[in-house]
Amino acid sequence: MKLLEYKAQELFDLYNIPTNKGIVVDKLDDLKTTGKEFSFPVVVKAQVLVGGRGKAGGIKFAENKEELENIVSQMLGSTLKGLPVKKVLVTRKITAEKEWYLSITLDRKIKAPLLMFSSQGGMDIEEVAKETPEKIVRVPVEPLEGIRDHMAWYILDKTGIDSSFLTPLFKLSENLYRFFREYDCLLAEINPLMVTADGQLLAVDAKVDIDDSSLFRHPDMVKFRDELTEDPLVIEARKYNFLYIPIDTEGRVGVISNGSGMLMSTIDLFSQKGVKAACALDLGGGATYDRIAKAIEIVFSNPQVEAVLINIFGGITRCDEVARGVELARREATLDKFLVVRMEGTNREIGVEIVRNITPPVPLAESVQEGVEIVSEWLKERNR
Amino acid sequence: MSILVDENTRLLVQGITGREGTFHTQQMLEYGTNIVAGVTPGKGGGEVEGVPVFNTVRQAVEERGANATVIFVPPRLNVSAVYEAMYAGIPLIITIAEGVPVHDMLGAYHLSQKKKCRIIGPNSFGVISPGKSKAGFMSHKIFSPGKVGILSRSATNCYETVFLMTREGIGQSTVVGVGGDMIPGSTFVDLLPLFQEDPETEAIVLIGEIGGNDEEIAAKYIKNNITKPVVAFIAGKNAPREKSMGHAGAIVSAGGEGSAQNKEEVLQEAGAYIAESTAHIVEIVKTILQ
Question: Is B247 a catalytic residue?
């Protein structure tokens, strides 16, 4: 789960990571009611989870009250790279001496946290990595040990930064690591990390990604999650413990399966036929017929979806439940959407019998390949 | 022969009194697995399906000589159970829960390296050596004894492959679910040497997917150390970037790290056969074994 900047800032505050505090505004009136006198110039930052926010027009500067109101009213309700801007953050504009980069990621290659620093802050780190990889210092962190001061020394030595920054950089890294651990982060990134004229370090932007599996430990974050997810079908699916994944805005097929791996391989088979998937839904294990009907309903309610393939390899998921779910969904759903079922495994024979008796008929595929074939052919026919 | 589990495995079931634990204990016993003990703290002294239940793993090891454990404990408490097994000196720890916090697993992984024990999972269906023993929740009817060793990050893609193999009369030596999480206890490279050494295994199937670089590391190892034929399949070629595809570990970064294309390239370069689908895996294996 990724956090919006302002939320990440709030958490940084708890860990003594200095941020450029501001106010969060979700309607123009908020500017007046805060009673706060802004000291201009200020920065207005769209609170949207997109990369390259500045370039896309999501960061603007205002010299006075009028400009500020103009920018805020324009930004709120607009979209940035397709995502609606519901909130903006207004902060004072800082003049930086330098812009650095500091982050901790959970690195899968080394199976450990990785502390990363660059004196080339303020730009996309993947770009820095591509163009000037020597400007990035990487320090693996022993999970059972944590951050030590020699790591800060190493960074200063590598970058030639003045040794007066040793303690500030060490303290900041230590605090960021403590946050990273306690909030189960996959990523905690400060970019840019500004060095002000008086030598203070300031986290001017914050990117945080929290491990979804740890959310039971962070109930304060859970309520915040739905606010972030823009697709209402994702939220609807989550209520039933399904994972709904929007795939391609040009796709016309929905795929439902009882496991992540098979979901991916089914989408791949469609691609081999030149058919794009609009969305996918993972049922997880052991879904009952009413939940399966609900899953079909959710995928059908994506207006892009014209046809759905249900591909089940039943272990804990029983084919008879799947069949009953299909029967129920078919009865209630609009008939202009096409539905094909492929199922294998537990109670297959009972399931097949049920599916054969559904009216209007639901094609039953003998294999995944055949299911993909039937759906692809149907789409071709329809477009003829 | 086979790897990890066989008729000499003395299996412990942690979380044996839970709904899943009890159900799968009965299933594993039915398959012929030698389950010597169960553990649920506070339920010691009882029995499940005739298996004695202890309060602690240490007791189960001392009194019943358990040498492997399968953990049916929910994600929140899962890693505590893994730690208990490690401290009791169990060399093989199979843990199946999906949704274990990755930071929990991080600590457990590093301790397992120090203690020289092998963790399989989490988010895994377990391990099965068909006809001998199973430690996990896989539906065993589709498996059959034979010469193909399988390592898979996905349960469903693995079942599909095994189902098709068995239908074609191709059996399996051992099938291991390495699991779909970001930090698995064991990855392909940790298990490949076992299949290389196992005289019963004649071909190795590797079912990978997008995310991480375990396939890349495996490719390097295959190139230099594996003489048996390897068939690899990578799921998720058409998954959008920066979106987890269900498995916590199945995610391609914004910069394209962890893509299926790269994995296929390096595996092919290492001499592995690349399969386009689960059905294609079976076709290739069939040709190899002929």
Answer: yes
